[in-house]
Specification:
Length: 312
C-alpha cells in the first residue's frame, strides 16, 4: 500500500468515522499460567496453547487524498464495478467505490478469508505482489484492525515484519532494547540478558549508543532481527525481508532463526523463496487478490502454484 492510504477499515464499518473498538478488534489471549508473553531465552508458555483462527476476514483501505477524485470518476463510469476484475490476479485487491460511505474510494485488500492454524503447524503465505500476504500478517499481529470476532490469536506473538516495528528512531539502539524489555514486562535480570544477547548478535559496536535514525538499513535490520529473535514466542509471524542483509549476516541469521522457529508453537511466514517454504512449512496458503486460492499441504500447493506461474 502507498502512503496515500490511511489505516485500513474492516468491511462493514464507516470509513469516515474513527473506530472505537481497537482494544476488542483483535483477541490476544495470555497464557493460562499467568506468565507474560515474550520471555527471553527458551522460557515460553506451555506448548499446545497457541491458536490462530480467522473467520471471514475482510479488510478495506479507504483512500482520502486528492487523486481519489479522478479515480472516483473512472469508477462511476464503470457503473461502480471493480476495476478490471480480469486483471485483479496480477494487480492486487479490488479498487471500488464503497456504496456504504457516500462514494469513498476503497481498496479491498482481503476478502472473506477464513482458516485455523493449530500448534505444530508451519504455514507459508504465497501469491503475487499485492495478493494480501503482508496485509494478512499485519492483521494477525494486531497492526491492522479487524472486526471483533474475525481474528482470534491465543498465545504470545512476535512479529518480524518491519525493521522499525516497535522502535523509536530518536532513541539509541540500547534505549530501544530497554523499551522493548519494558513492553514485554521483563524483569531487570531478563533485561540485562536481552541487552547482552542483542549486542553480541547485532555487532553494532558504538552505534548501539547512537540514535537509530543514524543507522543504515542494514544496521536497522541487524538490530530489529536481534531484538525480535531474542524473544521466544508461542506464535512467530515473519515477512521475507528478514532474509535480507549481507551474506555473513544471513549465515548468522539462519541458525538463530531456525532455533526460534523450532521453539515456536506456530509459524506463519510470507516469502517468494519457495525453497525456504519447502524447508520450513508443513502447509501453504495461496492468496490471490486478497482471497484464498488454495490451502493445503506444502508440496501440493507449491506444485499447483509453480504450474500456474509457468503457464501465465
Amino acid at each position: 500500500m502507498t502512503s496515500d492510504l490511511i489505516s485500513p477499515k474492516p468491511a462493514g464499518t464507516d470509513a469516515t468515522k474513527p473506530d472505537a473498538t481497537r482494544a476488542d478488534s483483535l483477541t490476544h489471549t495470555p497464557a493460562e499460567d499467568g506468565s507474560k508473553p515474550g520471555r527471553t531465552g527458551n522460557a515460553v508458555s506451555r506448548k499446545g496453547e497457541a491458536l490462530i483462527r480467522v473467520n471471514h476476514l475482510t479488510l478495506d483501505f479507504p483512500i482520502f487524498h486528492g487523486g481519489a477524485r479522478s479515480l472516483k470518476k473512472t469508477l462511476f463510469r464503470r457503473a461502480r464495478a471493480p476495476i478490471a476484475k480480469t486483471r485483479a490476479a496480477r494487480t492486487g485487491g479490488e479498487v471500488e467505490i464503497d456504496p456504504n460511505d457516500t462514494g469513498v474510494v476503497r481498496v479491498r485488500a482481503l476478502v472473506d478469508v477464513s482458516f485455523t492454524i493449530r500448534p505444530g503447524e508451519r504455514v507459508g503465505l504465497i501469491g503475487h505482489n499485492g495478493a494480501g500476504k503482508s496485509t494478512l500478517l499485519r492483521a494477525l499481529g494486531g497492526i491492522y484492525e479487524a472486526v471483533p470476532g474475525m481474528v482470534t490469536v491465543k498465545g504470545s506473538v512476535e512479529t518480524l515484519i518491519d525493521t522499525n516495528s516497535g522502535m523509536n528512531r530518536e532513541l539509541t539502539g540500547r534505549e530501544n532494547i530497554q523499551l522493548q524489555a519494558r513492553h514485554k514486562g521483563l524483569r531487570t535480570a531478563q533485561l540485562r540478558q536481552l541487552e547482552k544477547d542483542v549486542e553480541a548478535f547485532a555487532q553494532l559496536g558504538e552505534f548501539l549508543d547512537l540514535p537509530v535514525r543514524l543507522y543504515s538499513s542494514g544496521m536497522a535490520i541487524r538490530l530489529g532481527f536481534a531484538l525480535a529473535t531474542a524473544i521466544a514466542p508461542n506464535i512467530l509471524l515473519m515477512d521475507e525481508w528478514f532474509m535480507a542483509g549481507d551474506a555473513k549476516f544471513q549465515d548468522k541469521a539462519k541458525d538463530r532463526l531456525s532455533a526460534v522457529v523450532e521453539g515456536a508453537d506456530i509459524l506463519v511466514i510470507t516469502s517468494h523463496a519457495l525453497n525456504v517454504l519447502e524447508t520450513w512449512c508443513t502447509r501453504i496458503i495461496w492468496l490471490e487478490s486478497g482471497r484464498i486460492r488454495m490451502d493445503g499441504p506444502t508440496t501440493a500447493v507449491l506444485d499447483a502454484y509453480r504450474a500456474e506461474m509457468e503457464t501465465s
